[in-house]
Fold each of these.
Amino acid sequence: MTQPIQVEIRARPLARYRELLGPGFDPVLEASISARENLAGKVVWNVNSTARGGGVAEMLHAYLPYVLDSGVDTRWQVLQVTDPDFFVLTKRIHNQLHGDSGDGGPLGQAEREFYMESLADSARRFAAQVSAEDIVILHDPQTAGLIPAVSETGATVIWRCHIGIDDPNEIALGAQGLLGELVGRADGCVFSRQEYVWPGLDPDRASVIPPGIDAFTPKNQSMDVSTRDGVLGVIGLTATRPQTRPVFTRSDGSSGAVSSPATIVQEAPLPESASLVVQVSRWDRLKDHGGLLTLFTRDLKDRDSHLALVGPDSSGVDDDPEGAAVHAALLEQVDSLPEEARARVHLVSLPMEDLDENAFMVNAIQRRADVIVQKSLAEGFGLTVSEGMWKARPMVASRVGGIQDQIEDGKSGILIDRADDLPAFARAIDQLLEDPSRAREIGEAAREKVKSGLLSVQRLILHYQLIDQVSRARRQSSGP
Ligand code: UDP
């Protein structure tokens, strides 16, 4: 059984975006002011399955503080795990919604019953806190089972799906079928791209809102080179330990310092002068770290550059039961490499005890990269892409899912048409490593692209429009 717990969110000042966005700030501010008026006396709830690790948690941390700052009462609750089989099942649904068979297990009547039973207690306890005026946004497959209980409270229910596939195959359609009846009972559904809208859903109830990043969090805040190098020294990626601990600004505005080492599998630390290729991702098969490792050690012409595969400490992401196995398989792959290749590979697991510190470590590694890769086989949106682009890094990424909505091929990054085309990834990485001025140009265009529309606060306009539209439709359908 699972029971939701509250995640603490603190307001962050929206006004800090005024200078960054220039005239683009005005519509964000206007939307926030009207939201405060329209949503007075109501609570906007968010429920998902983890407060740490992964894109949904990242996205909620990136925009809810600004919703609070607008004066809207918003709250975030997380399903509490007690039965690990529940997350084995929801990870299967996750993979299958991406069109991948995942662990190969079934999604039939027995699984649906287990899914609903596992959520029954949380659904009841969560619904008891909700009032009929409220708006409830349920994120991803783990929470869809809460829809009936929340609907009964009279609240407006929105289901937001962060996973999808452009051309759904049989596997994806099967997983949609499993949740279809539940999702059809929500007042509105949100997908990260138009192509992801499920064919069986009422199109009038479906909207598209991609997630976005916050430029000021520890993950994305600016950092000078000596701080960056200090962080890499503290975590142990490079050999030079800094004299003083590198400092950063925490999400709540207080000051933090990086002090924890990472768990790194490497023959030797990264040489200061080496070129670095990086991928940051959860340890998830669909992120295809293994493919990147293969092409890096087999197909890349550049034999001097290093590769860092970076992810959370595998015990660190609550709703992802596959992380440890994916990491173990990578370890085996690294072990089997010839010595020359192994010497250029760094498998980095970042500590997750202090999320701000973890985020600042990711930030430093992304800034140290000469090229950032996102070799995903499937991707909902891919916030790591916006994160790399914001740091003006040239990205090489698969042309899958929401990655295509971020990178304009050849301009603000390089898209590889087929995610399994390893030599094409190697060629693109080689070209960027060989041509630093082109790499710089692409990186700068990437940063501009983020500024022009990939930030979480820019999505607030769509977020408030959605709430308004869905609540209005609900009032109309339920009559006077
Ligand atoms: N991430 C992190 N620490 C890590 C590894 C990853 O904070 O050690 C973050 C990463 O920076 C990004 C998120 O996890 O913000 C992953 O989101 P994305 O949308 O790329 O993929 P998802 O995990 O949702 O599939």
Amino acid sequence: MTLTIATTPFADQKPGTSGLRKKVRVFQQPNYAENFVQSVFDVLEGYAGQTLVLGGDGRFLNREVIQTAIRMAAANGFGRVLVGLRGILSTPAASNVIRKYEAFGGLVLSASHNPGGPDEDFGIKYNIGNGGPAPEKITDAIYARTKVIDRYLTVDAPDVDLDCLGETLVAGMIVAVIDPVADYAELMEQLFDFDAIRDLIAGGFRLSFDAMHAVTGPYAQEILERRLGASAGTVVNGTPLPDFGGHHPDPNTVHAHELFERMFGADAPDFGAASDGDGDRNLILGRNIFVTPSDSLAALAANAHLAPGYACGLRGIARSMPTSAAADRVAQALGLPLHETPTGWKFFGNLLDAGMATICGEESAGTGSNHVREKDGLWAILLWLNILAVRRESVAAIMESHWARFGRNYYARHDYEGVDAVAAERLIAELRAALSILVGRMVQGLTVVSADEFEYLDPVDGSLSRNQGLRVQFEGGARIVFRLSGTGTSGATLRVYLERYEWPDGILDADTTVALIDLVAAADDLAGITRHTGRSAPSVIT
Ligand code: G1P
Ligand code: ZN
């Protein structure tokens, strides 16, 4: 029996974002999650009798919201729900399941790399039938719906047992609890040479993977330890916990510092990697070397043909605008198109669907390919392992020969977090107004060759995205990009992306901080960062 429950309207989703991300306490308010799920269903058309994929990163509230969504999917007329065992599905695995079983779409429960637990964050995101995040047209409609929603549909049915594989009926709708790892591992086996990686590992190659008590633990244990033969204990923090053990599941220098210490310490393994809360980000380390995400994208693109899934070459490479131009050098050398998109994975979807790009990446630790429609942490790690297995060189040696061939893009992102939102807007507005007079000027000894505000005309659907970041390009390939974060939760976050290019025959500085020192000063000269924000240094450097 379908129940219609009257609710109070709410207007909480940030427009332009791909899902709803809030504190757990906010989600625990009566009807809150229900209102959002119903708003999603209300704007979709044609899903009667179709399949919905459901799963999350295991954080606090995951199971409760899954049970709620199952009852609501039944009441709204879905024919089948595929849910990951124990409610677990990594974001890339959910994307794969949606594609493989030709589902109508999926609800992914996660707040990505944000902390979890009763006082931390939760999120719900809708993915469409291609497996990717819903485009703006749909998220805007969902947002509009959340403002006026006044009822939701549910059924009176007991909870589904999420701890056992198999099918049950909920008010006539099939609920199948599926193995979250099997389909994903199978896809990875199609793309990569597991025999070669197994040989590498059997030959004494040592690796360490930090799952950060988040969703990738079971995937990494199955793939790295069981299928590829890495020793037990290769996967650390491998059990998903509702509060991620009290840590931020964000694979960076701060939150994955143990892995950094291991990789830069005595007797370091050959390869170190980590992924975030929902498994879409990646961190790549070799012995005594951190590979920046921009460099990783470039190195993966240059070597992808060594993996069976990419042996026929790439159709193109796509990167978000603030990501370094390292991948551009590879595209140029290989004669491939290079697409520059706004920040956010959703912009890659059309290029991948249209076969215009094969590999995509963002400076924020996201890399992926046309195998799914989300970025994919373990995929990047396995492609690295495949390349290492074929080349039989260290990570450091691979990067050195990469820079010797393509040149090196020294790169850093400086984040000024929690700055006053009005001051941040003023900084951007002033710099925007000054862009036209910058060309030809010298700043800290560097000549500005162009200055503009990035906008993107999607070559597939013709949509135009404006105001995607201010960029100042200098002679010799150096660049500074300024933009405000779209995902921050308190105040504004100013992101300043700094990049300097060294030709292959240039003098390689090796130290990024030294290489970028003039650009840091130039950024302040151009934008008045200290003057506007009162900050003399960034809160985080990545
Ligand atoms: C950040 C990253 C961006 C990524 C997004 C979602 O967005 O910069 O690359 O796609 O998180 O993971 P931002 O806060 O910069 O808007
Ligand atoms: Zn994530």
